[in-house]
User: Fold these one by one.
Assistant:
Number 1:
Amino acid sequence: MAEHKHGEMNTEVQEKTFEGFVRFTVWSVVVIIGILLFMALVNS
């Protein structure tokens, strides 16, 4: 097993995954707010 050196870990995959998670969360919140506004406008 290779010797671990602090600060040399490749984090590209984790960063892309987190970016996707944040994008999904933002879009989900936008859609939910849109649905709530639509429901408020049609007096649901």
Number 2:
Amino acid sequence: MSENGVVITGMGFASSIGCDTETVIDSLRKGRHGFSKVELRKGIELPIKVAGMVPGYAFPSPDVRDWVLPPESNVDLRREPSLPPHGVYAVDALEQAIAQAGLTSDQLGDDSTGLFAASSGSPMLLRHHLSVYDEGGSQRGHPLGVVRSVAGTLNFNLAARYGIRGANCGFVSACASSSHALGFAYDEIVLGRQDRMIVVGAEECAAENILPFDAMRALSANVDPDTACCPFDQARDGFVVSGGAVVLVLERASLAKQPLLARMLGWGQAADGYHVASPHPEGAGLATAMTRALRYAEVDAAAIDYVNAHATSTPAGDRAEALALRSVFGFARPAVLSTKGLTGHGLSLSGVLEAALTVLSLNGGFLPGNRNLTCPDEACEGLFLPTESENANVKLALNNSSGFGGANVCHVLAKP
């Protein structure tokens, strides 16, 4: 490994399938999903009944006095009035990640450590603050209303909380956002600009995050949490939204402490140039992103053991990705899995979440299964789609993400 090689040394979770690494691994191995029935608006009948909520947390209103945090949370809401709900998730996940990486406050605060984050902000708080302005004028608004609700809120809050003086930037490319953050964090280290990078993805799971996708007819209408999300299956009818936060710590290989969780060998990106909200029918941009990632990492497609697919359980998206995978891998047959069948779709969070889940597979020597896959779409012909978790010597993996506007990202990850 070169001196500027990039390794992953820490991770943290606040997710629908667990809020610590051990619980997440157990969920992956046992095929335990994180979905539950939800009531998005009290007293109002809405079509969406299932979501991936984070256990132990509840944010039923914009009033922090109504918020519920687990006893082990690191957040004191009385002292952090600018944190949105997904910022609470992010702090708790970040504390786990820096503890595992063994980072000190001095390391976090020197200018060799940067932080890249991705989220859509807090639509719930933004809606609330704007309604206050409409009703009573700006003078009655929350003095921190802007910084606790707009898309950059993670960067604002986390950089200030942890004294970050290196690179600090937010990424907004819809469901590819945290994948872009991870890719550009890798570049910061390879180019010698930073010694380490903290990558954060976080989203809320509130009506304001969920219902706009129902208007697009993108969500599953299935009211059964056990069967609502079925990537690659012919019966799929849309995705299930989930919330939470995941954090990865990337470091220059020559400076990292043992044990290492994984190596990141490179990444690639490409746009479809096709449609504002629909993927290219044959997954052209995603195929290019995968090809570029493999070429940069100097890895042959036949050497890949596992692909963590973006597959969200939408008819068009899963089909396009299946065709892209067939075009890139040909007769090679890596295991293709969509962990969204367990976690749901975390929107901008999903890229770093699935990178972390891939790292657990590489490090733990196992593959999760494709939950609810009983009758694969015909576009999946030739793909290897295991349905049960199994032990496996996974050495090399790809992690795919796609977002609105045809934004496609692929990471190449390797066993440490």
Number 3:
Amino acid sequence: MGIRIIKTALATIAAIYTAVYLGLEPPLGAGILAILGVEVTRMKGLKSAFVRFIASVLGLFFASLIFTLFGFQIWAVALFILITFPVLSRFQLKDGIVTSSVIVFHLFNRAEVTTGIIGNEILLLFTGLGWATIVNIIYMPKDEHQLGFYRSAIERSFGVIFQEMALTLRNPAHVWNGGEILEAYNAIEEGALRSVRNRENRLWGQEQYWSTYFEMRRQQLESVQQMLVELAFVFEKFPQAVMIAELLDQLSSDVKSDVYEGNVEERIFELAQLFRAMELPKSRDEFEIRAALLMLLRELERYISIAKRLKKRKVMSSELQP
């Protein structure tokens, strides 16, 4: 917010001085247009300037027709609003309504429609929106540090979640408040929002890493929540539970890896084969617990498949050879 205020102040001052130098009237109008044109990202700034300019030109066109036909009456302004605003909204130009109104009110204040006045208003648009665009492009705060912070928070929370799940499988009496689930959710949502802004600040080349990363974690968190549902049915310790706990221990460290390792996926396949070869349950309780453990293993497989689809693959050194 502080950076945006500074950028707005610089764009406003530059626009007013430029308008004075060019002899535009009123020069403060250029400052108002600059204030309206400063945005939070480069891409949004360019789109905003384009929309506001087109909307203002259309507004000038309709206002010139209305004022020429009906005169510069106050009720004619209401007629302008009734006709122009729906048209701008219909063509996805509603963000330019305020800018268009500023320009039209200048025209109304001059009480005449001439090519000189129209040209003056067009130059005011170029001056105000131009300086806002220049300031937007020159500097935008970098989000890389903050995105890295959210990534670390997510991976830390995931690591704790897997460790707590492993403890519960080894000791069903273990109590955990699940606070890391909420922490991971908040970090994912905040990180996803910042990744959008980070992408919109890149005019040349699209940055996909962060948006892909947070989408992967969002899907994986849904999988983790389903694991916890299955874990709630495990109220006794079984050998299969200890085996799955070892997988979760591995995941608690693998979660920080940038690449898909594939080790856990192989182990999941081996455990699935091993579970099939074991004796059938001898009681209803054992049946329900082992069924929950099997579902937990399947959910782990889904978690891994998300990483396999969205993470970078581990490339063996031999594959790098020409």
